[in-house]
Design brief:
The complex is a heterodimer of chains A (536) and B (432).
Chain A lengths: L2 E4 L2 E4 L4 E2 H7 L23 E4 L6 E2 L4 E2 L4 E4 L3 H16 L15 H9 L20 E2 L4 E3 L9 H8 L6 E4 L6 E4 L12 H5 L5 E3 L12 E6 L8 E7 L2 E7 L12 H4 L3 H5 L7 E3 L5 E3 L2 H14 L5 E6 L4 H13 L4 E5 L2 E7 L6 E5 L4 H6 L11 H5 L9 E5 L10 H7 L5 E5 L4 H4 L3 E4 L8 E4 L4 E5 L12 H10 L10 H11 L16 E2 L4 E2 L1
Parallel strand pairs in A: 1-7, 18-19, 18-22, 22-23, 23-24
Antiparallel strand pairs in A: 1-2, 3-6, 4-5, 4-7, 8-9, 9-12, 10-11, 13-14, 14-15, 16-17, 16-24, 20-21, 25-26, 26-27, 27-28
Helix pairs in contact in A: 2-3, 9-14, 9-15
Chain B lengths: L19 H6 L4 H7 L3 H11 L11 H6 L10 E6 L8 H8 L1 H15 L3 E6 L4 H16 L15 E6 L9 H8 L23 E5 H13 L1 H5 L2 E3 L2 E2 L1 E8 L5 E6 L4 H6 L10 E5 L8 E2 L9 H6 L8 E6 L4 H15 L5 H18 L7 H12 L7 H15 L1 H10 L16
Parallel strand pairs in B: 1-2, 1-4, 2-3, 7-11
Antiparallel strand pairs in B: 5-6, 7-8, 9-10, 9-11
Helix pairs in contact in B: 2-6, 2-9, 3-6, 5-6, 5-7, 6-9, 13-14, 13-16, 14-15, 14-16, 15-16, 16-17
Classes of the chains: A alpha+beta (536), B alpha/beta (432).
Chain lengths: 536, 432
Amino acid sequence: MPKVVIDGRTVEVEAGTNLIDAGQRVGVQIPHYCYHPRLSVVGQCRMCLVKIEGAPKLQTACTTQVMKDGMVVKVDDEEVKAAQEGMMEFLLINHPLDCPICDQAGECGLQDYSFKHGQAFSRFEYAEKRIYPGRERIPLGPSVVLNMNRCIQCTRCVRFTEEVSGGGELGFFQRGARAEIGVFPGKELAGPLATCVVDICPVGALTSREFRFAERVWYLDRKPSLCTGCDVGCNVTIEHRKGAIRRYKPRFNPAVNDYWMCDYGRGTFRRYQELERLSTPTLRGAQGEPRPTGWREAIEALEQGLQNAAGTPIAVLASGSLTTEEAFVLARWADRLQTPHRATWREDGVERRIPNPNGGIRGSETEPNRRGCELAGLVPGPEGASAADLMEGDAAARCGFLLVADGDFGAAAHDPEVVERLRGADFMAVIGWAATPLARVADVALPVTTHAEREGTFVNSASRLQRFERAFPPPTGVRPTLELLIELLARRDAQWAGLTAPDVFGRMAQTLPALAGRTYRGIPAHGIELESGEDG
Amino acid sequence: MSAWEPVLSRNFGRTEARTLEGYRRGGGYEGLQRALGMEPEEVIEEVKTSGLRGRGGAGFPAGLKWSFIPKATDKRKFLVCNADESEPGTFKDRFLMENDPHQLIEGCAICCYAVGASTCYIYIRGEYGEPANILEQAIREAYEAGVLGERSLGKGPRIDIFVHRGAGAYICGEETGMLESLEGKRGQPRVKPPFPAVVGAFAAPTVINNVETLCNLPHILARGAAWFRGIGTDERNTGPKLYCLSGHVARPGVYEHPIGVSLEQLLDGAGGMFRGRQLKAYIPGGASAALLRADEARIPMDFDNLAKAGSMLGSAAVIVMDESTCLVRAVRRLAHFFEHESCGQCTPCREGTHWSAMILDRIEAGRGSAGDADLLVRVTRNMSGTALCALADAAVGPVRSLVTRFRDEVDAHVAGGACPLPYRPLFTAEAS
């Protein structure tokens, strides 16, 4: 592989690597706007000009590929700095500089590079600024709004629709200083990936209708997580303010969602805000109404229900929203009760596709971790009732005890018929974060965490196991799902007492061949591909 | 100059030369005849030896450009003739196509044969309706006579020529912008490398030559490289050259001279200055060339001498300005041209052409401030050599030369708060 020297640091890269990527490997940041690793290289913004030994003038790093040994590149250089300053000035002369009322402020490429590469004064006469009258808030489609005055004509969005999403809705119109972005006549930016153009827009020209003006970004706390909208398992960053999620942003994972995620997934956190939260344990009152109670009473009621059910079938119905660790603990609990009736509900929904370098990934299930739950052992034993038997047949009516976790298992949890069938069990316990119709009719309902409030692993549609972090703590009165399940299990097997997600993962690694030798902390950033056993 | 026999323009005004018969009577298609008797490599060698440099503006050696076309490739190759003559002040290609279309067709055929291209597109600017019709007519004739088509002149390879009319954008005269437009896309330059010789029209190896460059080929082939080398200033500046003379000149027009004629000599052959007025400044090579002062009128106008003087031969569009001309206004007009024609994709050109036009607006209107001349220097410096294609550098040419060579005129505008020159219409009652 050819070697290149960038600011005195030598790096060996694959032939054809461009200088921006090569620089990144040795910690040399080359500023750029139009370049994006997944879009065609156009060399338009001219921010990445660098000096190459032997070249008569500065060259754009994005268009320069390392083909053979001997290239010597200078980024920390007076001439390069002057060019960067010049480009920043050009980009800013016609920019509104209305950062205080711009949604992008705080995560803006212009602000960042101005600070780093620009100058502190303007030589431009304010009255001469070019503006696009009437083009300040143009809806490009249902989810994206364009403010042409803020655009720096990098055309990332145009290339995205041509090359990644494939819709080709956006075009570059007019010429020169009047050049502008727009949708082609009769089209709108409406595909499932539409909002990705907001992510790749380096400035405040494209904003998401959902998020714009919802929050100043510097108030947001960020944590790496996973989208729970389907079983693709898009890597996301949860951005929240004091536990109120404001948005999901896609997090780079070339093996899964690459740089993208779908608009549906972006909106899934709203469920946490729209559904009523189960905020305290409840018991079933005299008229069947939920009656708040304390945790100790609730767990005792559950244990009592189990005792009463002795000799009758006991069933566990899980949803794919449990983490693999939770499912593993629940399965061990079912082991102790010696019941074969343990099932994971699978629900198929709209097929979602996300492009990535390996030809893309698709998912069609509504829950993120059905595969992980089954891997952990939540599958019917011999003669055990399946999820369909419980939810669509009359298996529940034969049960003396039924535990449902998590209670918000998709559309079915809100279907009165399903609720009635499950309610046919003599005693029904529901573990869940939401006050679903099912939770409301449970003999005991136990409030637990949303996925943003807990940590663990999910296994996606391509059998990739991925870890996510807790974004923020649960509200008072709500217990972490794993902690609760561990407590239930520890009552029957004390050696589980006090275990945490990493500990449980360790036990899984000892029992499940697919995870042999793995540790929780050792899960690579891009996950583990379980079937071939390779790291991503 | 009297001994000079026109070469490229010898058929100008001879209307019969527009027909194949008439063209042949004047010795036409002998160059192609000779070329087809040679190996393609020999033709390239002959053109290399002649020292012919591109007449479109950049002055790149034509033979060398051809030799960049990969030999071992199974891809189809193309010749694209750049007839998008849109540099302000330039009108030589139009004369060539209108007066002598077969000269261009012959040149295209020779080039196709030399580089192994079977298809040639003549990309002609949209405004050139009449020349396009004349060319089409001549091409039809050439097909009928067997010059083009299945076997060129009965012994050569297949050669096809198509006329493609542009939609009227200056940027489509930039070679990669032209290729984009030819392919039906938005006309804006491509990133180079890869160069068109490797990845050109329809991703195939492509030679792009200017009309005048190609028109030289029949003569080089018919009369030999040595004859061609004998014309001009030196071995790097050879051959005949068409100069487009316009502005305050008694008889504006296209004049053919050996390359390297000076403005003084050019004016001598064109009746001198308009009404005998004093020369103030001139642009030697089209709107993108730096302005030269009257005391620089003896510089031989060839590639190297003009480059040495800080300007360029460009398309050899010589625009003459007399002492009544407000240079700020003239350059402002050019700046607006470039602002209008910038394609808008890259930052320094899009923003720089716009900004410099606005600064010149206020200087010309008498609203300029003391720092504006220096600001123009800084803005043009940031535009130089930083853009994706040559348009930004072209826009810098006249503006930079205004503030460096004619600084006092800029300062007079700023200091006086108005244009110091009285407005003088070109035609007044006393004369007409």
